[in-house]
């Protein structure tokens, strides 16, 4: 920041004046979203598994592509990369 102040002393704070920085409410929404991210992801994983379980029982479904299924090509990669893989 000191280098920027030397190069353009009149510009310091200019970004805030023209509105390119986030406002207080935007920051609040971002923080709230980060705080609730983990519970929302857990619910999304449970919902995805419920859909996979349902589709496995449907006779019209010929093939499922989901990383939680051991027969899926990306299962090994997903198992290594994901902290909690939807149950297999």
UniProtKB/TrEMBL annotation:
SUPFAM superfamilies in the record: PLP-dependent transferases (SSF53383)
The protein's enzyme class: transferase
Protein name: Cystathionine gamma-synthase
Domain of life: Bacteria
CC annotations in GO: cytoplasm
Origin species: Raoultella terrigena
Keyword Iron: no
Cofactors (names): pyridoxal 5'-phosphate
EC id: 2.5.1.48
Transferase as UniProt keyword: yes
MF (Gene Ontology): cystathionine gamma-lyase activity; cystathionine gamma-synthase activity; pyridoxal phosphate binding
């Amino acid at each position: 920041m000191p280098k920027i102040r030397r190069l353009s002393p009149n510009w310091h704070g200019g970004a805030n004046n023209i509105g390119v920085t986030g406002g207080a409410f935007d920051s609040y929404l971002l923080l709230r979203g980060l705080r609730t991210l983990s519970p929302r992801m857990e619910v999304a994983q449970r919902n995805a598994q419920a859909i996979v379980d349902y589709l496995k029982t449907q006779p019209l479904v010929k093939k499922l592509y989901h990383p939680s299924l051991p027969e899926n090509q990306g299962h090994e990669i997903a198992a290594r990369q994901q902290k909690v893989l939807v149950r297999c």
